[in-house]
């Protein structure tokens, strides 16, 4: 029996029990949750999951989930997909940079990683006033292909940072940075 997969994305106001109700509906459709990501932004909630089951189970999930989603007052989107591959966690990098805020900074850095077939799995940006200008801080979690040399990527990224007039660093998550600040901003 071949397995079929469905990506389900939900958005709405955060409240207790959402994941439990969705997981129950997925289970009742005879599907399994292969992977999911959840985030809360203030009072808003987002969830993306990939579920797997037989063709009839996925069809059942497509038919029964909307009623649960509507009852929970959520927005949703569903899409059938093919084989799900787990994220490569062996080549994860923490990337941070900061400097005077300017148009095109994020585009330049995200383009750098796109050109290397890297995947940005987390992204956080903060802008604040300092003296007479805005300062932007950015943090990414990036998964790079196994064929990519960390040393070369680091060198090329530092060159890019210098050309953008920002400071930054890249840390291989497999190797702990002794100067890492564990506090969050």
UniProtKB/TrEMBL annotation:
Source species, domain of life: Bacteria
Subcellular location: Cytoplasm
Organism: Alteromonas genovensis
Gene Ontology CC terms: cytoplasm
InterPro entries, A to Z: ACT-like_dom_sf, ACT_dom, GcvR, UPF0237/GcvR_regulator
SUPFAM superfamilies documented for this protein: ACT-like
PROSITE patterns to which the protein is assigned, alphabetical: ACT
One annotated GO biological process: regulation of DNA-templated transcription
UniProt name for this protein: Glycine cleavage system transcriptional repressor
All copies of domain ACT, residue ranges: 7-88
Record's keyword terms, sorted: Cytoplasm, Repressor, Transcription
Main location: cytoplasm
Organism lineage string: Bacteria, Pseudomonadati, Pseudomonadota, Gammaproteobacteria, Alteromonadales
């Amino acid at each position: 029996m071949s397995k079929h997969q469905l990506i389900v994305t939900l958005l709405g106001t955060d409240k207790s029990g959402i994941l439990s109700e969705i997981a129950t509906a997925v289970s009742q459709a005879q599907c399994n949750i292969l992977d999911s990501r959840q985030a809360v932004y203030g009072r808003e909630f987002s969830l993306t999951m990939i579920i797997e089951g037989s063709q009839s189970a996925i069809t059942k999930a497509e038919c029964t989930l909307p009623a649960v989603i509507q009852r929970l007052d959520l927005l949703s989107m569903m899409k059938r997909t093919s084989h799900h591959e787990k994220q490569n966690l062996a080549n994860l990098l923490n990337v941070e940079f900061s400097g005077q805020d300017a148009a095109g900074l994020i585009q330049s850095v995200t383009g750098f990683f796109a050109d290397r077939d890297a995947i940005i799995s987390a992204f956080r940006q903060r802008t604040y006033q300092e003296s007479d200008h805005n300062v932007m801080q950015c943090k990414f979690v990036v998964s790079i292909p196994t064929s990519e040399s960390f040393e070369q990527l680091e060198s090329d990224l530092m060159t890019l940072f210098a050309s953008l007039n920002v400071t930054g660093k890249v840390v291989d998550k497999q190797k702990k940075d002794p100067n890492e600040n564990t506090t969050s901003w």
